[in-house]
Here is the input.
Amino acid sequence: MIWAWLIHELQSYFIQKIEKVLNEKGRQIIGWDEILEGGLAPNATVMSWRGRRWNCGCKENHDVIMTPTSHCYFDYYQSNSANEPLAIGGYLPLQKVYAYEPVPDELSAEQAKHILGAQGNVWTEYMPNESQVEYMVLPRMQAMAEIGWTYQEHKNFDSFISRLQSHFIEWKREGYNYADQTLDVQIEFQSLENGIRILPSTLLQDAKIVYTRSDSKNPEVYTGKDGIVIKESNILTLRAENTGGTTGPRKVLDMKFHKGVGLNIQSTTEPSGAYQGDGIISLFNGINGSDEKYGDNEWIGFYGKDLEVTLQLSEGNEINSLNTRFFNGPGQWIHLPQRVEIYTSQDGESFNLISEKAIEAHPGKVFDFKMEFPAITSQYLKIKVQRFGEIPEGQAGAGNEAWLFVDEIRLN
Here is the structure.
């Protein structure tokens, strides 16, 4: 800890020294929010990128540009489609950019004056050409512009999406490579007894959604009333169409049911915001995540905490095995967990450990984990995945907590 303090103090000394030189020449210093560590130079402007909403420098009367990774990094994936070009990671859909409010509620009116605005960032190490840069910034750039120039009470995402259609026409005429996710089918899952309810939607409100089920083959138009109820393994294919006849990409849900689908989730550790998918139900909907990237809705990420979930079993539902997958990307601060533990209970309060299994090192990107244990017929089942912990010296992110990424948890 003392070394970290000394490093911050040295950095602060250096920044303040440089600032004096620049101020003497009529210039002002600006720096990423690391310059907050150890004490800020008196006249510095801060680029707030790490999400420090209330402690971004405004309270010390420093000017601040809000540019957090959570809402402003356009090198992140913007869609869950398997056809998305390779990106650095993360997930930042258009609606999340638009939802950003640059001025934190916690600030006083005087402090809020120091928010100069918001900035979108485009780091191009994963973008080999100008065409891909266009694809990553359009239309997220439009969303960033609108939130920067619009009072919060006047923002309207549905109106923004409707007005965006004219931009698409113009960009197409000019030959720009842009991303149109307004006809992507988005899915919300709800757990039912022994099944799943699927609620599809699109960003474009008046789009028509047509779907087929592998157990019927007949196309149906989604009416938006009660959702689509699935009670067994199925392949659901959905596609949206606007009033002009333009269709969006196919959305295919390959649902392979197991005994964990449709169970009542009693309690759980909440996943981290940037990688929460549809919540913990994403781990029990029968759908596997991508084999290549962890930024889709099926891989769920946890930072600084273990995964712990309690399920209420159906009567007569015997379970004796667990299969899942863990993502392994040390270069991205993602490490395999230490172990998986299984607990049982009759009352949901007092739990007994019945099985545990340690996880060995694995060189691949995705680690298939399998675990068998004595048959469980109790009323409650608790699954605990113990995270890796602090990243050791010599590895990317040393000294920070490692991320834990978990795919579908299959119970049989």
User: Anything to note?
Assistant: The chain has a mean pLDDT of 89. The helical segments are 2-24, 69-72, 94-98, 109-112, 130-137, 140-149, 157-174. The chain has seven helices and 21 strands.
